[in-house]
Amino acid sequence: MLKNKNPLMSTDRLLAFSDGVFAIAITILVLEIKLPKHEDLILSHGLYNYLCHLWPSYLSYGLSFFAIGVYWSNHHWVFTFIIKSNHVLNMLHIWFLMAISFLPFTTAILGDFILFDEYKSAAVTASCVGFLLPVPPVFIIYLYAVHKKRLVAKNLNQKFIDKQKIKLLSGIVFSALALCFSFNYPNVSLIIICVSFATFLLPPDAPVYDEK
User: DSSP letters along 3-57, please?
Assistant: First the structure.
């Protein structure tokens, strides 16, 4: 009798590992807000001025903290109905977590260069890439899990599944649109990012199950 080469597993360890990566990524964002040196205070004419001039770092920190928070919240929600894991899903998750871990880098780029006209578009583009990268793996993880109800309950409602596909696909569209605008209209791109993440403030749909 052949053994199953891709056995089903509990999601407990996957979620614990994911939460650890999220916690580290969201915490190190604050390290990009630099403490001043004495010469910085002289050039800035005092600590008050220095702190005020850091507003780009505050902006990028806030955007990225909120973005990671949104990704974590939706990740938590998705795993209320993805009830099993396997090797393929674990590997897809590594891809997703790699993208999340990249966000502090793009945050630093945005904070350091957004005030320079010659670098602003490139800084916003880098930021958009950072926000976009986690979205495709989330979509693929979802498609893989719900395909033939592979890793979800067999009575999970099909209309609910299809509706979430559209929602996740819209996230890719918004992120890609922001990336396209970033090359020539960086301010518009930032607005699109803020609006797209604001939509996720709404409570997600509760999973719907058919009667057995």
Answer: PPSS--B-SHHHHHHHHHHHHHHHHHGGGGSPPPPHHHHHHHTSHHHHHHHTHHH
Asked if pLDDT for residue 44 goes beyond 50, the answer is yes
Tokens of 159: 């209309």
Would you call 143 exposed, middle or buried from its count of C-beta atoms within 10 A (0-12, 13-18, 19+)?
middle
- Rounded CA-CA distance 189/192 in Å is 5
CA quadruple 60, 64, 66, 67: dihedral positive or negative? Answer: positive
- Give the chain's mean pLDDT: 89
Which tokens is 34 given? 């630099």
What does the alpha-carbon distance between residue 32 and residue 148 come to, in Å, rounded to a whole number? 44
Domains of the chain by residue range:
12-201
What backbone torsions phi and psi does residue 205 show, to the nearest 5 degrees? Answer: -70, 140
Count of other CB atoms within 10 angstroms of residue 67: 25
Reduced to 3 states, what is the DSSP secondary structure of residue 85?
strand
pTM value > 0.70: yes
